[in-house]
Amino acid sequence: MSKLPNISTSIFTVMSKMAAEHNAINLSQGFPNFPVDERLTSIVAKLTKENVHQYTPMSGYPPLLSKIVTLVKKSYDRILQADTELLVTAGATQAIFTTILALIKTNDEVLILDPSYDCYEAPVLLCNANPIRVALNDDYTPNWEIIEKACTPKTKMIIINNPHNPTGKILAKSDFESLEILLEKHPDILVLSDEVYEYITFEEKHISAHTREKLLNRCVMISSFGKSFHVTGWKIGYLVAPEYLMKEIKKVHQFLVFSVNSICQVAISDYLDLVSVDEIGKFYQEKRDYFRQLLKDSRFKLMPCEGTYFQVASYVAISNENDVDFCKRLIVEHGVAAIPISTFYADGKDLKLIRFCFAKDNTTLEEAAKRLCAI
Description:
Strand content: 5-15%
Distance between the termini: 45 Å
Number of strands: 13
Helix content: 25-40%
Shape: globular
Largest sheet: 7 strands, mixed
Order of helices and strands: HEHHHEHEHEHEHEEHEHHHEEHEEEH
Number of helices: 14
Mean pLDDT: 96
Radius of gyration: 20 Å
Structural class: alpha/beta
């Protein structure tokens, strides 16, 4: 008997498989197709011959932990204790899974704001807990009145994703103020803040939970080196939590993975001496602006994109099909793969919107746009 009876193959796998079968340009899955920074690959090449291939300490390679402390201080003016508040993880998904497994008990409720990334619900279900899906407004802003009505004595966590996948939205200051008021009323609720696109923001920087004093003792923050440094296949991230929560999280982590890929940890530690995270947002803003410019004469209506490397587009002027069927036809007939937004909702809400990933080289974006503009 399945422990996850209603969870099937991910839409990302389905669309990427179809893209490969039809030789389509894959703008569905969120991974870059351009080369990794040569400074980073040079570090890895050098490290292969050094003594960095055995287990690191469970919480992470100590020099990397120290570099993360420095990074968080520079980015958010928050001072972390590396020994007690920081954990290197095998990617952000493992960080999220481990956090939920450690902190959520049978029959607890976890609020998930839809549209939501698909890795949130499964660990809640595996805890024999209840995911409570609450839809954002149609402009993807949170409706805090509805969110608060969804809270019960069983509610133990709310998951926020900022910048937001799939929509590219960032939370406003007023959203954090509303969240903090909600937490004052419900002292047992924790926050899981998924901030894997934290350095991929454009006109305005996102407001991190790291900067909200009232959240620090009740919030777990998730970050991703894979997203920030274009090495998604390395599966390396980190989480930040207050000591009393981190103790529980580490109990699960040590039996789930124990420690994370050693050579990747050392490589990123060395790379952090050479790279500025300020470069990342500028790089992707150029990609976003170029992709939007390429599509300006298409029949797609482009939604605002405040962060991430995803562009949401409406196809209302093109078709009245549901978004899953439209995406499948887009692959088969036009040779471009995208992701239907309805799959990020528990109820399959269909607003005729699809998501493109623009973390691609310009040649790929140009060819994709040429095909999309011909529709």
